[in-house]
Specification:
Layout lengths: L1 H22 L8 H8 L4 E5 L2 E15 L3 E14 L2 E12 L7 E5 L3
């Protein structure tokens, strides 16, 4: 029983870590379908005209360290697209603003 529990916990940690690792494969110019096929479906989105913001929430950013053991640091990750093309992405929150420029701005998380 202990080995099954340990296997489930290990699998959960590796799956969570892999999700954030996939975020490193994002690049400017990718399409929305490429983003979804690379990192998975977003937890939410906002659309405003030619702009769209994809929201990935509460992602595990560090699960294991030789020095500190288990760590449960989590963050939100956002992707901003214009005309179905990535123009900005990274850990942080999306704020909606007026439409003089882009209706979205990414507020980067400070570590």
């Amino acid at each position: 029983m202990k080995s099954i529990t340990l296997a489930l916990i290990t699998s959960l940690l590796l799956t969570s870590c892999a999700t954030v690792g996939k975020m490193n494969n994002l690049r400017e110019g990718m399409t929305k379908s490429e983003v979804v096929s690379t990192v998975g479906s977003p937890n939410g989105f906002h659309r405003n005209g030619e702009y769209e913001a994809l929201l990935y929430t509460n992602l595990l950013i560090s699960g294991w360290s030789v020095f500190s053991g288990v760590s449960w640091n989590r963050t939100d990750y956002s992707v901003i697209l214009k005309n179905d093309s990535v123009i900005e992405y990274g850990p942080g929150k999306i704020l909606q603003r007026d439409q003089k420029n882009s209706p979205y701005t990414l507020i980067q998380k400070q570590y």
